[in-house]
Design a protein that fits this description.
Length: 326
């Protein structure tokens, strides 16, 4: 299960075109592999997300890339943070995850969520549906995917998906951990309690305690021990050897997205910087310790501003493992 995950959230790097792109991605994953991370994760999107870039920024398909990263890493688990359930038939997804487990020699992880990026769905022709519909589809998917990953042959005659004695051979090498992403207290965390090994919270830090209480209540209701579930907090990070270097990295990244820290008003600047854990290793370590003090079991970190620099990835891994006492 994930206690310290490294997510790669973007694929647009200074001076890097398509031909050199995978080498840059592989270098990040290798740096995470040798610096204490237990999981490397990719976004499962086809367009870049708002705040990280324009829709036509580079975006590699998640599972093709993870399969390639299996040959570039040795220890880390590999997964999506998180798979959009709406993008793939669940039986196909079970086969994809199984293939990833086999090519990585037992290091696959299934991260999954209901899907939320409506613009991407509408543009590319994926059915979006209502909020309720997407969560009902997710639950039906889990009733197909999880038995297939456990070498069972499920039959499901659902309103969204149907399978009959679904075969998944060869079976996975490992017992593949399941992460359900999101922080919804009524639907998402109830499904975490019922189906998942991991939970990744995207809520603001001042809501984490309430989310943990909601998860514990769902576990108690179904008779599950909450300690069986590893909960991580998702964090955007910008770390550098010095405070000034971290600020410079942030300034460059935001400037490329039309935001000038030097000219914006103080309130806006403070709001933007508050969305990121940033600074030198001591500053970032203190913030990690504060987040862990909220009761989560670990951290899932991304470096949108400077993750293309493997040295920054290693520095993040060293700082986070120290905060976690690993």
């Amino acid at each position: 299960m994930t206690r310290l995950g490294y997510q790669i959230p973007n694929f647009t790097y200074p001076g890097v075109d398509s031909a050199g792109l995978f080498d840059k991605v592989a270098a990040q994953a290798a740096a995470a592999d040798r610096s204490g991370f237990d999981t490397v994760l990719l976004m499962d999107h086809f367009y870049q997300l708002p705040m990280l870039g324009d829709p036509d920024a580079y975006m590699l398909e998640c599972y093709t890339t993870l399969g390639a990263l299996a040959r570039e890493t040795k220890k880390v688990r590999l997964g999506a943070l998180v798979t959009g359930n709406t993008y793939r038939n669940p039986a196909l997804l079970a086969k994809i995850i199984t293939a990833l487990d086999i090519v990585s020699n037992g290091r696959a992880q299934l991260g999954i969520g209901a899907g939320w990026f409506e613009f991407e769905h509408d543009s590319l022709g994926f059915e979006f549906g209502t909020f309720t519909d997407r969560f009902e589809r997710l639950e039906e998917s889990l009733q197909i995917i999880l038995p297939m990953l456990r070498d069972e042959r499920p039959t499901v005659d659902g309103s969204r998906y149907q399978v009959k004695d679904a075969i998944n051979q060869p079976p996975p090498i490992s017992r593949i951990p399941v992460m359900i992403g999101g922080s919804g207290e009524k639907k998402t965390l109830r499904m975490v309690a019922q189906y998942a090994d991991d939970s990744n919270l995207t809520a603001p830090v001042d809501e984490v305690g309430r989310k943990l209480d909601a998860l514990a209540a769902h576990c108690e209701r179904i008779g599950r021990d909450r300690s069986e579930i590893t909960v991580t907090k998702a964090l955007n990070v910008c770390i550098a050897p010095t405070h000034d270097e971290a600020y410079a990295d942030m300034t460059t990244f935001l400037g490329g997205r039309g935001m000038d820290l030097a000219t914006m008003d103080d309130a806006t600047k403070e709001m933007i910087l508050s969305l990121v854990v940033w600074g030198d290793p001591d500053e970032v370590g203190e913030q990690f310790t504060a987040v862990l003090g909220l009761g989560v079991d670990g951290l899932t970190c991304s470096l949108p501003a400077n993750g293309h620099d493997p040295d920054r990835v290693e520095l993040l891994g060293q700082t986070a493992t120290k905060a976690l006492g690993l």
